[in-house]
Amino acid sequence: MAIDKGLPYNYFADIVESASDHLDFVKFGWGTSVVTRDMEKKISLLHSEGVAFYMGGTLFEKYIIQDRFNQFRELLRDYGAEYVEVSNGTIDLNDARKSEYVAELAKDFKVISEVGSKDNVRSENMAPSRWISYISDDIDAGAQLVTLETRESGHGGICRPNGELRFGLVEDILDSPIDVNKLLFEAPSMELQSFFVRRIGADVNLGNIAPAEVIGLETIRLGLRSETLLDFEPVGVSSQRATL
Fold first, then answer.
1. Displacement of CA 104 from its chain's centroid (Å)
2. For a Cys staple, 161 with which of 25, 116, 117, 120, CB 3.0–4.6 Å?
3. Distance separating alpha carbons of residues 198 and 207, to the nearest angstrom
4. What is the radius of gyration, based on Cα positions, of the chain?
5. Of 160, 162, 131, which is closest to residue 146 (Cα–Cα)?
6. How many other C-beta atoms can be found within 10 angstroms of the C-beta atom of residue 171?
7. Buried b (16+ CB within 10 A) or exposed e, 21-46
8. pLDDT of 242 above 80
9. Paired strand residues for 4
10. How much is the pTM?
11. How far is Cα 56 from Cα 75, in angstroms, rounded to an integer?
12. Alpha carbons 9 and 27: distance in angstroms, whole number
């Protein structure tokens, strides 16, 4: 998933047309879709390139805090949206209630939920057992994917305030019965992308990718960048090359 923070249309079109083979989704970050001049053109281009889209979960939260849930559904229909993101990273919405919104929206849309707070303190203090419980609840409610929060800055959620990945949390989630194919790991930095490709595999679901870095991520997945080059070679090849 690449994140569009409000790119000018021509730049957006260049990225999508050149990298659509490596894109599943474009997310229009937070509430940018409301003030983006060329939304219809962007959506039309994504349709033509076979790339899905959805609006950032913050827009959902904005409508919820204003008690305008039905208007939010109407907005999605107006955009012809197939997918919707449901989150509670900013507002005071408990996770049980969030799962109810997942179930309600799953009647008409494909839901991508998000677990984890944008608040560094709240996220860091959330025990792994709670992460696993909230992820499972959203999947049971009908979410097709559950995003593990990491802000586009690379802080918060599954990362500590200093940007360091919470390795123990990730391992606990991976050791749980949750299907890893239903998880979308937000990984805005090359370091996070490389870690998840090495730890989980080349097909790991990654999100919050800067549009200009989509091709770079594909080279990480294929072992065409130094960070993962040796991970994709037969055992012993690196030592043989050193000898040569």
1. 21
2. 120
3. 16
4. 18
5. 131
6. 12
7. eebebbbbbbbbbeebeebeebbebb
8. no
9. 28
10. 0.91
11. 13
12. 15
H helix or E strand, kind and range, residue 85: strand 83-86
Each residue's pLDDT tens digit, 1-45: 999 999 999 999 999 999 999 999 999 999 999 999 999 999 999
Rounded (10°) CA dihedral 202, 205, 206, 207:
160
Nearest to 210 by CA among 153, 161, 168: 153
d(CA 26, CA 53): 5
Side-chain half-sphere CA neighbours of 112 within 13 A: 27
Q: Which helix (H) or strand (E) holds 201?
A: none
The alpha carbon of 201 is separated from its chain's Cα centroid by a whole number of angstroms, namely: 17
d(CA 199, CA 193): 10
Q: Which CATH superfamily is domain 2-243 in?
A: Aldolase class I (3.20.20.70)
In 3D space, the residue among 74, 31, 20, 88 whose CA is nearest the CA of residue 54 turns out to be 31
Contacts of 147 (CB under 8 A, 6+ apart): 85, 87, 112, 113, 114, 115, 183, 184, 185, 186, 207
The C-alpha angle 115, 121, 127, rounded to 5 degrees, equals 55
Domain layout of the chain by residue ranges: 2-243
Q: Which residue type, as a one-letter code, is found at position 214?
A: V
Per-residue pLDDT tens digits for 46-92: 999 999 999 999 999 999 999 999 999 999 999 999 999 999 989 99
